[in-house]
Amino acid sequence: MGGDSTLSGVVGDAATLVSGGDPVSYWFDVCEDDGSGLCGIDFSDFDPSALPSLDHTDEEGLLGEIDRILDSINGDQLPSSLMPLSPPVEPASNVPVAAELVVQQCLSVENSCGGDGAKDRREVVKLEDKDGSAWNGGRKYNSTKEKVCDRRDERGANRRDRYRESSAWRRPRRPDEGGDWRRRDGEWGRKRERDGGGEWRERDSRGGYWERDKSGKVIFRVGSWESGANREAKKTKLDNAEQARRSPEKRPQEKREKPTEEQARQYQLDVLEQAKMRNTIAFLETGAGKTLIAVMLIQSVCTEMLKENRKILAVFLVPKVPLVYQQAEVIRERTGYKVGHYCGETGQDFWDARRWQREFESKQVLVMTAQILLNILRHSILKMESINLLILDECHHAVKKHPYSLVMSEFYHTTSKDNRPAVFGMTASPVNLKGVSSQEDCAIKIRNLETKLDSIVCTVKDRRELEKHVPMPLEIVVQYDKAAVLWSLHEKIKQMEVEVEQTAHSSSRKSKWQFMGARDAGSKDELRLVYGVSERTESDGAANLIQKLRAINYALGELGQWCAYKVAVSFLTVLQNDERANYQLDVKFQESYLKKVVALLQCQLSEGAANGNGVKDADMHISDAQKADEIEEGELPNSHAVSGGEHVDVIIGAAVADGKVTPKVQALIKILLKYQHTEDFHAIIFVERVVAALVLPKVFAELPSLSFIKCASLIGHNNNQEMRTSQMQDTIAQFRDGRITLLVATSVAEEGLDIRQCNVVIRFDLAKTVLAYIQSRGRARKPGSDYILMIERGNLSHETFLRNARNSEETLRKEAIERTDLSHLKDIQRLSSADTLSGSVYQVQSTGAIVSLNSAVGLIHFYCSQLPSDRYSILRPEFIIQRHERPGGLTEYSCKLQLPCNAPFQQLEGPLCCSIRIAQQAVCLAACKKLHEMGAFTDMLLPDKGSGEEGEKAEQVDEGDPLPGTARHREFYPEGVATILRGEWILSGKEGCNNSEDELYMYAVKCDDIGTTKDPFLTQVSNFAILFGSELDAEVLSMMMDLFVARTMITKASLVFQGTIKFVETQLAALKSFHVRLMSIVLDVDVDPSTTPWDPAKAYLFVPLIAEKYHNPLEGIDWCLVEKIVETNSWNNPLQRARPDVYLGTNERTLGGDRREYGFGKLRHGMAFCHKVHPTYGIRGAIAQFDVVKASGLLPSRDSIEPTDVYHSKEKLQLADSCIDVQDLAGRIVTAAHSGKRFYVDSVRYEMNAENSFPRKEGYLGPLEYSSYADYYRQKYGVDLRHKKQPLIRGRGVSYCKNLLSPRFEHSEVENEENLDKTYYVYLPPELCLIHPLPGALVRGAQRLPSIMRRIESMLLAVQLKDMIRYPVPAMRILEALTAASCQETFCYERAELLGDAYLKWVVSIFLFLKYPQKHEGQLTRMRQQMVSNMVLYQYALNKGLQSYIQADRFAPSRWAAPGVLPVFDEDSKETEYSIFDEECPAAETEPQKDFYADDCIENMREDGEVESDSSCYRVLSSKTLADVVEALIGVYYVEGGENAANHLMRWIGIQVDLDPKDFPCPKPYNIPESIMRSVDFEAIEGALNVKFKDRGLLVEAITHASRPSSGVSCYQRLEFVGDAVLDHLITKHLFFTYTNLPPGRLTDLRAAAVNNENFARVAVKHKLHAYLRHGSSALEAQIRDFVKDIQDELSKEGFNYFGLGDCKAPKVLGDIVESIAGAIFLDNERDAFIVWKVFQPLLHPMVTPETLPMHPVRELQERCQQQAEGLEYKATRTGNIATVEVFIDGVQIGIAQNPQKKMAQKLAARNALVVLKEKEENAMTKDMDNGEKKNGVQIFTRQTLNDICLRRQWPMPQYHCVNEGGPAHAKRFVYAVRVNTSDRGWTDECIGEPMPSVKKAKDSAATLLLELLNRCYPDNR
Question: Phi/psi at 954 (nearest 5 deg)?
Answer without folding.
Answer: -60, -40
